[in-house]
Request: fold
Amino acid sequence: MPELRKDPIISRWVIISTERGKRPHDFVVEPEVTKGGFCPFCPGNEHTTPPEIMAYREGGGPPNSAGWKLRVVSNKFPALVNEGELDRRGEGMFDLMNGIGAHEVIIEFPQHNQTLSTVSIVQFADVLYAYRDRIRDLSRDPKFRYILIFKNQGRAAGASLEHSHSQLIGLPIVPELVMEELSSSMAHYRLKERCVFCDMIRQEIQQGVRVVLENDLFVALCPFAPRSPFETWILPKQHHSSYVDLHDDSFPKLAEIFSETLKRLDAALSRPPYNFILHTAPVRETKLEYYHWHFEIMPKLTLMAGFEWGSGFFINPTPPEDAARYLREVQLEGTTAP
Reply:
């Protein structure tokens, strides 16, 4: 029997279409065909990108030169630009402002053919540190109210270049989806004086059926009402509303659970394209008792069609309990069965 499930965070309804009951091997994932050729993100080609904003280098070295471990540059084709004034205004009933913001690319490591699921934990942790450092830096600009960090892995997920990278967009407004999370979380807190995310984490760990992985600081789980098959969230067990409050010592632990989650998705689904998004508190609102930062990972396995666009519902053919079990039990390369 299909189920209608309500997301406990923002009250969004999804349809778990158990009649379709898709398992990992039922999804057709087109293998990624590499185009090769010139790559502006590879070492030695630093002069072909916009000037360096930030880089991690062992032993220093001049900007815009080789020898970097991680590099951040402006997007060559930005969605928003950082020069000018917002100029908020109205045209009759319509509201508009200038497209002011920041759009940056985090080139995650120098190796062209690596991905976040194949690099070392140290390299993965560097990417996570960079997210924090860029949020901190851009939060000083009074124009920005929200810093959105996301990754498109694979052409089907929107990646236009093969070299692994993430993106950051500094926005003068808080995105609608984040506003929904904030307002719904606040309503829960006013009613129960508890964070809804903390409640969810406690229950999921107690029940165990939707938990994929956990360590002493973080948990990876398939949410109760997922929008798409194998949607997976990574959350801190302790309450923190802002990603920038994460302690330095916690980043390797986050890298470990994030890396293994991606490895398990790769093994179960034949390296699917995916997106992930960091949801964190708006800038200058970093101590919210009712909100909880988290990563959301969305493998690209289904398409939105007429019903989804017309109704706002999502149809998911794989129950999250099954998805979590598949991910827990999948055999990773180089490991032996228990």
